[in-house]
Amino acid sequence: MVTLQSKWRFLFMFLGIQLVVMALLSREGYHKRVSYFIRIFRKGEAAGPQLRNRTVLSGGDVYANLSHLPRGPGHGDEMPYCPKTSPLIGGPIHVTFPSGLTLAQVQRKNPLVVRGGRYRPPDCEARHKTAIIIPHRHREHHLKFLLYYLHPFLQRQQLSYGIYIIHQAGNYTFNRAKLMNVGFREAMREEDWDCLFFHDVDLIPEDDRNLYVCDANPKHAAIAMDKFGYKLPYKMYFGGVSALSPLHYLKMNGFPNNYWGWGGEDDDIGVRVSLAGMYISRPSLKVGRYKMIKHKLDKGNDVNPKRFNMLAKTRQTWKMDGMNTVEYEIVSREYLPLYTNITVNIGTESGLRPPKAAPKPAEKPAANSSSGLQDKAAVK
Fold first, then answer.
1. pLDDT digits over 287-345, tens only?
2. Contact 229, 260 (CB under 8 A)
């Protein structure tokens, strides 16, 4: 039999436990609410200077962060290596195309760039050496905008770099991939570059966190172009801006030489990457953004009608057509203030020098006119 006293004891114990639980829950809820407001306060306090600092550092201007760099010659024996992550990087870049821009203005904005479009950080030893290869013909208007943005973009990454314009001589159909083969060979003759970026002249990078250094595998940097809605158009796309180390280039036998006109060579190169046992690396969609300078299809760069048939044969042709078969002649090499210009004759589909036309057979004189010819000869 449970006594009345025992019942009261159990009742008081039950009520006591409930009060303890309620107190704990109330205390935890109180702390949560207090912590929530403290976090909000601290977040605002921390974000304020960060946002102000970000505005000062970049503000969308690609030339921000560069004005304090020393202008005098550096690179003594005790020069330290640059940080692994450049403190000059600012993130997104505001890209516009102002009218009236000139190369002279671009040169004045980049006082540390030396003859041939070369640059080294003035206050530290670069960890990476990158060559930029730009296939080109009759695109001077686009080139000045690319140089305006690309020079400070690379300087903010603290790279040692050089810019090469590979200009196709003559008016024969444009061949982008063959020009890139020429660019690789000529750039490597001048310096032992760690990485080579193959860059269309009409694409402007919009975020300097998109590092122009090579990865363990071939890199497709232009993953998000505005013309594609800042999305990758298809998985194997390798166009616009891509990067290879010399080892990558050798493993895939460079680029095809036989794509004359627009289209097909990018996909051929993407297939070569796979056939050589590598895969394509890419930055994030947020970082690998590019704005294209709008233009019409160039004269002399019509759509290649053979591109699909040629792509179907890449598996059979990639080892026989590439860096091991490229032929060209250097017309001129100019070390200009903002870039090295290499004008090159890459020939035609018939080869470096078109075959000479067969001589026409000599016409036989008519039988009744032989005496007349002899009379003329005698007169002379």
1. 999 999 986 666 666 777 888 899 999 999 999 999 999 999 999 999 999 999 999 99
2. no
User: Rounded to the nearest 5 degrees, what angle is found at the Cα of 91, between the Cα atoms of 86 and 93?
Assistant: 125
Question: What is the Cα–Cα distance from 205 to 211, expressed in whole angstroms?
Answer: 10
Work out the average pLDDT over 90-105. 94
In this structure, how many other beta carbons lie within 10 angstroms of the beta carbon of residue 133?
Answer: 25
Contact assessment for residue 252 and residue 276, using Cβ atoms and an 8 Å cutoff:
yes
358, two tokens = 């067969």
pTM, rounded to two decimals: 0.77
